[in-house]
Amino acid sequence: xxxxxxxxxxxxKGQKFIAHCYEGDKPLLKNILKPGEDALVxxxxxxxxxxxxxxxxIEQGFVPISLGKSRLHGDSRFGSLSYIESSKPITxxxxx
Length: 96
Known about the structure:
alpha/beta, 96 residues, three-stranded parallel sheet, 29% helix
């Protein structure tokens, strides 16, 4: 498994997002994803990221986003990304 702190500091040329369930103003991914650009979307484990992990990711340039009103579990989280942006390329990298 890749260490979270090391992963978020890797160089990535493209849009960087973090989906989490904490309160706050978070735009929907489908409304801010730029067509034609690579995107890295962090999706937490069951139970979400810790607040500290979210803070660290934001400090590294990740933009907080929402995937919608429903709380998604398991593989449905990845399926929702494919559905939301099926016509736009998404780079999917796992930290596992």
